């Protein structure tokens, strides 16, 4: 049992003589993790399994990692399984001799085809007993299944299902559906890998269960190094061989960024006015750029001249913008072979030569866009250069990066532009520039350090980029991006749709969703209809184990965490019921939003990119009345 305190990653790896990891060992690990409540224990269990694989069958580490997060390739490649449930049901029927109606009703009752598959034992007698499954074969075949269709897909699923033993059936079927349900997301996975690595390094002098205590600092360092490397190189096919071969301290240099592989973007902190900006930056040289309201785009060109475009979330958006690719050479000046630029794509009115609102951009088709059919034209506003001709620029200051950007690229009217910028340390000029940005159809300004503390901080919400929005609510400063986790049935005019919803922020450290408010305002009837239809497809039978909420908030339906909404509010207050940021500002109370109002769906964010618990705490604390209260209580002391 990989969760037992006595588990020894080498001695207890029962497959050590064969050196091929059985799928059953992984399935058993998943089973234990699914039954475990605390996140630390879940991570520890997974780290034990990873450590065993590192020691016994290291070439299985890559497939084991991908299988644990139910991915077939780096996320940005977008290779997905998602086999239809009915196809799987048919395969299960064929193998078990049960009828389809029975499997369907059982699935409705239990709410999980994986469990139904596990419970329906294979009844067919085989001439030859299929060989036991192993991790690398399962992974290879899942990749194959994702790429083929029709009868051959069915056959492959069937052949593998027949070979499943015990809980293998559960996880195999869940992998195919695309929902593993063990609650291991990226951050937990990276931590488990780091702990596994430390356990491996100390396998001789320490029992696995003690490593977490004895080598606390080493675990913290290893985790940080691994997570940092992953932000610039989000690809386990590269990272894992490197951690097995080299010292972890070399990881960043062994796994360099390169075009074609998205970097986690640098993010900004909100502010509530020009004064706050100057308080923060003091005498540092700063630049203000217009903050365009469109879609963030990291545009890559590799040595072969291939272009890829990634969203804020590192999703591959290349197929959405064939028009940009067609005209990409116009941007180049001089000898440019490869680059990574950071930019914002906005909708563009060709006749009036002006920026159109975000809503227009959001009507553009997302996939398989045919260049002839494009109705919404776009213009790209470039604001940063992260890589040029084989050299990464992220450790250079913004003024140097900008100089290189101007050297290698050129503007093309209505197609490629540099973000309008003003380098000034004069408060009135900043205020005036803010007004101008609004007249230019922008959201406000981004204020950035130029020379000091001005490197590109991958994946960080940095204090060196401040956003200054015109429509900031004087009290709150920014909107929040929240995950819809529950729905309340509507009454009166709203009968037949949901009338209200339960929203949550995301706590990155504990990887859980914490309730922050109920919301019922800001929706048109049409919005409610759309939301009800979409969320109705993502109802789950119970709250997820990683939802934190008070029982008094129990909604009529719980949802999978699949959609993020932008929400504005009047202010944030401490709440005895809601759990957002609990333990950060107050030990027992969370934070909730007062008068929340729906603004729009954030398609470009997945639920793990929702506003984080620390951001909620920060927004709460920077409200004037909270600050004043804190000041007066310190004065009283
Ligand atoms: P988050 O901060 O979580 O990304 P968000 O996606 O709502 O939230 P904002 O915080 O409002 O974005 O602002 C940062 C975003 O502004 C960037 O991600 C980018 O898409 C956009 N942006 C527009 N113009 C610029 C610019 N000149 N410099 C940097 N970012 C810009």
Automatic annotation (TrEMBL):
It catalyses: ATP + (deoxyribonucleotide)n-3'-hydroxyl + 5'-phospho-(deoxyribonucleotide)m = (deoxyribonucleotide)n+m + AMP + diphosphate. It is found in: Nucleus. The keyword Nucleus applies. Keywords: ATP-binding, Cell cycle, Cell division, DNA damage, DNA recombination, DNA repair, DNA replication, Ligase, Nucleotide-binding, Nucleus. PROSITE patterns: DNA_LIGASE_A1 (PS00697), DNA_LIGASE_A2 (PS00333), DNA_LIGASE_A3 (PS50160). InterPro entries: ATP-dep_DNA_ligase, DNA_ligase_ATP-dep, DNA_ligase_ATP-dep_C, DNA_ligase_ATP-dep_cent, DNA_ligase_ATP-dep_CS, DNA_ligase_ATP-dep_N, DNA_ligase_N_sf, NA-bd_OB-fold. Residues 371-507 form the ATP-dependent DNA ligase family profile domain. It is an enzyme of class 6 (ligase). It comes from the Eukaryota. CDD domains: Adenylation_DNA_ligase_I_Euk (cd07900), OBF_DNA_ligase_I (cd07969). DNA ligase that seals nicks in double-stranded DNA during DNA replication, DNA recombination and DNA repair. GO terms for molecular function: ATP binding; DNA binding; DNA ligase (ATP) activity. Its EC number is 6.5.1.1. The gene is LOC117135574. This is DNA ligase. GO terms for biological process: cell division; DNA biosynthetic process; DNA recombination; DNA repair; Okazaki fragment processing involved in mitotic DNA replication. Residues 621-636 have a biased composition (Polar residues). Coiled coil: none annotated. GO terms for cellular component: mitochondrion; nucleus. Pfam families: DNA_ligase_A_C, DNA_ligase_A_M, DNA_ligase_A_N.
């Amino acid at each position: 049992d990989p969760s037992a305190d006595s588990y020894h990653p080498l001695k207890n790896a029962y497959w050590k003589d064969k050196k091929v990891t059985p799928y059953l060992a992984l399935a058993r690990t998943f089973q234990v993790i699914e039954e475990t409540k605390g996140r630390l224990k879940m991570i520890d269990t997974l780290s034990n399994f990873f450590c065993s694989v590192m020691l016994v069958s290291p070439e299985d580490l890559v497939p084991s990692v991908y299988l644990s997060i139910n991915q077939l390739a780096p996320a940005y490649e977008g290779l997905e399984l998602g086999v239809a449930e009915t196809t799987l049901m048919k395969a299960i029927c064929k193998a078990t001799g049960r009828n389809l109606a029975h499997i369907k009703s059982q699935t409705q009752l239990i709410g999980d085809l994986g469990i139904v598959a596990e419970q329906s034992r294979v009844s067919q007698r085989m001439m030859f007993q299929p060989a036991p499954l192993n991790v690398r074969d399962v992974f290879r075949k899942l990749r194959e299944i994702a790429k083929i269709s029709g009868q051959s897909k069915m056959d492959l699923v069937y052949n593998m299902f027949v070979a499943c033993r015990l809980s293998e059936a559960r996880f195999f079927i869940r992998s195919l559906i695309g929902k593993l349900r063990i609650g291991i997301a990226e951050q937990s996975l990276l931590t488990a890998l780091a702990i596994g690595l430390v356990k491996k390094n100390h396998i001789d002098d320490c029992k696995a269960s003690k490593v977490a205590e004895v080598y606390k600092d080493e675990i913290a360092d290893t985790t940080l190094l691994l997570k940092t490397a992953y932000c610039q190189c989000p690809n386990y096919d590269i990272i894992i061989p490197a951690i097995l071969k080299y010292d972890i301290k070399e990881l960043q240099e062994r796994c360099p960024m390169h075009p074609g592989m998205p970097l986690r973007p640098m993010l900004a902190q909100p502010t509530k006015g020009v004064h706050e900006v100057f308080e923060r930056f003091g005498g540092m040289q700063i630049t203000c750029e217009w903050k365009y309201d469109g879609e963030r785009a990291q545009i890559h060109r590799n040595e072969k001249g291939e272009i890829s475009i990634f969203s804020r979330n590192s999703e591959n958006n290349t197929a959405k913008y064939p028009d940009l690719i067609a005209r990409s050479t116009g941007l180049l000046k001089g000898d440019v072979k490869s680059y990574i630029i950071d930019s914002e794509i906005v909708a563009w009115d060709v006749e009036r030569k002006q920026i159109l609102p975000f809503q227009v951009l959001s009507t553009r088709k997302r996939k398989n866009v045919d260049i002839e059919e494009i109705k919404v034209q776009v213009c790209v506003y470039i604001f940063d250069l992260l890589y040029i001709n084989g050299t990464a620029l992220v450790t250079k200051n913004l003024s140097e990066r900008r100089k290189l950007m101007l050297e290698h690229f050129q503007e093309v009217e209505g197609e490629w532009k540099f973000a309008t910028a003003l380098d000034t340390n004069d408060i009135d000029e900043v205020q005036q520039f803010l007004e101008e940005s609004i007249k230019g159809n922008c959201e406000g300004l981004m204020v950035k350090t130029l020379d000091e503390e001005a490197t590109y901080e991958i994946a960080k919400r940095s204090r060196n980029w401040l956003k200054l929005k015109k429509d900031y609510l004087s009290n709150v400063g920014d909107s929040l991006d929240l995950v819809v986790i529950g729905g309340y049935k509507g009454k009166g005019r709203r009968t037949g749709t949901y009338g209200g919803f339960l929203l949550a922020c995301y706590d990155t450290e504990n990887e859980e969703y914490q309730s922050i408010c109920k919301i019922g305002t800001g929706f048109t009837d049409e919005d409610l209809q759309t939301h009800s239809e979409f969320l109705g497809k993502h109802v789950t039978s119970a709250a997820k184990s990683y939802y934190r909420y008070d029982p008094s908030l129990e909604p009529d339906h719980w949802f999978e965490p699949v959609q993020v909404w932008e929400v504005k509010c009047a202010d944030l207050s401490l709440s005895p019921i809601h759990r957002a940021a609990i333990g950060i500002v107050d030990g027992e109370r969370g934070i909730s939003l007062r008068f929340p109002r729906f603004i729009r769906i954030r398609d470009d964010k997945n639920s793990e990119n929702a506003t984080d618990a620390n951001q909620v705490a920060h927004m709460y604390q920077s409200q004037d009345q909270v600050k004043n209260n804190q000041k007066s209580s310190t004065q009283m002391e």
